[in-house]
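We include the entry.

. . .
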Amino acid sequence: MYTMIRTATTAAALLAALVLPVASQAATTTSAGPQHYVFQTRTTESYHGGEYDGTLNLTVYPSGIASGWFRFNDAGDVRNVSGGVSGTQIWLDIGGTLHTVHIEGTLKNGVIDATENIPGPNVYTFHATVEPNSH
């Protein structure tokens, strides 16, 4: 159970990190269409060493709505992602079969930085960078 919660939290943090840069880019574009991005994510937690790496595939629409999917590199589970972008602020909900993770942070210059506090003392940090030529 703890592993599932940690995995979901990591995924959420990762998504937040990925969506933020996309939102700021989408907000400044003159294109009327959606913008698609692929982010490489890294999630760390305050009380344990190591990190959880993943991929966030995200589409940001001109309205600010974001949707896509997330997957940890060491686990094949694909999780739905939904959220929104407003200016440089981004929020994402990363879904799972047992738990949805909510992350909030910033998206600037193709980088998402977010923090998620889950029940208990652990603090999860989510960082994502857009892959070159992914949009």
Summary: The CA atoms of residues 9 and 118 lie 8 Å apart. Confidence is low (pLDDT under 50) at residues 1-30. Residues 2-28 form the longest helix (27 residues).
